[in-house]
Amino acid sequence: MTSAAPPPDAPPPDRRTTPSAPPPGWWNPEVRAERRLVALLQELRVLQTGVQIVFAFLLGVAFTPRFGQLTDAQQDIYVVTLLLTVVSAAVLAAPVALHRGLYRHPGKERIVTVSARIAQAGLLLLASSLSGAVLLVLDVVLGTAAAVPITCVIAAVFAVMWFALPWAVRRVTTRDRA
User: Fold this and answer.
1) b/e per residue, 150-167, with b = 16+ CB within 10 A?
2) CA dist list (Å): 133 to 37, 156, 171
3) Half-sphere exposure of residue 37, counting CA atoms within 13 Å on the CB side?
């Protein structure tokens, strides 16, 4: 007894085929907004890990024996950096709270827009917090004369990579569409 061979144009049984069209509702504004919000929340989850690491570092610093030896300026840098870190954690978590508080609420596109702006503010606070941590560590290790210019370079890297680059890409993309 022989089995019938599959037609020559049939894909192999283990090969997955991709659909020729997106799933139903893919371009629906509400579905699109939901996808964008899910992507944003994923990105914020990654950032929260960085905030937690900086915060843990800063909490540990205050309880080391050497903390009492910091100058008043270094302690001021520490306090400002600690507060920036806490505020950045709150701001970066706000879109999650907004999503939870407005779950199944109409107007998802507005929630995405507000959440994206909140995330940008959180990025600014996080960049400031990370720069402050760098300034504190470098001031203790290398002294103020070396710490300040190096920290300025670090802050400039954040400004370029997190703000100027996305703005430039958006500008070019918008111009290319016109």
Assistant:
1) ebeebbeebeeeeeeeee
2) 30, 15, 32
3) 25
Each residue's pLDDT expressed in tens, for the chain with a length of 178 residues: 555 555 555 555 555 555 566 666 666 777 777 788 888 888 888 888 889 999 999 999 999 999 999 999 999 999 999 999 999 999 999 988 888 777 777 777 888 889 899 999 999 999 999 999 999 999 999 999 999 999 999 999 999 999 999 999 988 887 777 6
Name the packing angle between helices 72-101 and 29-62 (round to 10°). Answer: 150
- Alpha-carbon distance of 131 to 151, in angstroms, equals 6
- Rounded CA-CA distance 112/34 in Å is 8
Tokens of 141: 């290790």
Per the structure block, which two tokens stand in for 23?
A: 């799933």
| CB within 8 Å of 75: residues ≥ 6 apart | none
Reported pTM? 0.76
- Closest by CA to 81, choosing from 161, 138, 39, is 138
CA distance 21 to 161: 35
Residue 65 DSSP symbol:
G
What is the spatial distance between Cα 125 and Cα 84, in angstroms, rounded to a whole number? 6
> What CA–CA distance (Å, rounded) separates 51 from 129?
9
